[in-house]
Amino acid sequence: MAGGDERGTTERVLTLLGLLQQRPVWTGPELAERLGVTPRTVRRDVERLRALGYPVHANQGVGGGYQLGPGQDLPPLLLDDEEAIATAVSLLVGAGGAVTGAGDAALRALTKLDRVLPTRLRHEVRALAGAVESFDIGYPRVDSEALMVLARACRDEVEAGFDYPSGDRTRRRRVEPYRLVASDRRWYLLAYDLDRDDWRTFRVDRMTDVAARTWRFRPRAVPDAATYVQEGVASRVYPHQARFLVHAPADTVRVQVPASAAVVHPRGDEHCELISGAASLDFVLMHVLLLGHDFEVLEPPELAARCHTFAQRLRAAGMEPKNSAAPAQVPRTSTGADAG
């Protein structure tokens, strides 16, 4: 019976360690609720972790709680089965990804992960690794150091600066960085531009001389990062924007349209709204037409007129030519007897 209690304590302490690794600070009552124990038991388990060499700090007062500190002797990160598989998949993607230098680093990390995985998971990860190939699709590579500088600035809530092309010149931008968003093998930064006093989306591969500053900022009410960046990439950056009501489910249309080309919102079970932009409204119209679904133009009004123009042209192209000449008749050749 004592052996069972010991195993239960060990599993609980490992679960506590996993929770401490998930986020910076936990209060005692929060940990007690997650573990299903009393705050006193949490304090004893924290002492067990400290005895094993884990630097667990306890801070009192408002905003205080338990925090897992860094250290050279910190034991390895613990992963459950799902986390281990997800990490392996991410490393496989990174091995052929769009971050400069990430390929070799991802392969090294995958090799280390393979050595410490349980046997049952090692076979699954090796099978996955053996089945995955990648190819270079030509997207610009992102500097891994720039990506890490921005990620740390987002985490620490400090201002960042970088050079960014604007028109025919490059300008220095000062921003409050909030989120990094990945889409279509590109990385974007959602940030509040301090010089323009508005939210902006920046492509990380276009940045140079990226640096975090020492000034901390008070977080603003941030828009949904993924939605804001997608709408910017698919629509707002273009001179013309269009909205359509497509007579097909949103999930069906999302499969047909890249996330960087259009934003798709469900409108009931059988319809969706598609928002896109381009240098030419005709270009957007033809792409929506080629989806193969009935649709209606919501805006702009002039796009509805373009629909009528296209319809007339297509109808005319499908009609029989008006002045088609009859096929030329090949004259019959005389026989030798007639010639005589």
- In the CATH scheme, the class of the largest domain would be Mainly Beta
Which second-level CATH architecture of the largest domain applies? Roll
Q: β content, as a range? A: 15-25%
The neighbouring-strand order within the major sheet is: 8-7-6-5-9
Termini Cα gap: 125 Å
**Number of beta strands:** 13
Q: Determine the structural class based on helices, strands and strand pairing.
A: alpha+beta
Number of helices: 12
One letter per element, helices H and strands E, the order comes to: HHHEEHEHHEHEEEEEHEHEEHEHH
Total domains: 4
Describe the sheet with the most strands: 5 strands, antiparallel
Helix content: 40-55%
Q: Pick out the low-confidence regions.
A: 333-340
Reported by name, the CATH topology of the largest domain is SH3 type barrels
Shape estimate? elongated
Q: Mean pLDDT, as a whole number?
A: 81
Pfam families: HTH_11, WCX, WYL
Organism: Nocardia suismassiliense
Keywords: DNA-binding, Transcription, Transcription regulation
Protein name: Helix-turn-helix transcriptional regulator
Account of the 3D structure:
The protein is α+β, with helices and mostly antiparallel strands. Helix content is 43%, strand content 24%. The radius of gyration is 31 Å and the shape is elongated. Mean pLDDT is 81; it is low at 333-340. It comes from Nocardia suismassiliense. This is Helix-turn-helix transcriptional regulator. Residues 318-340 are annotated as: Disordered. Residues 9-64 form the HTH deoR-type domain.
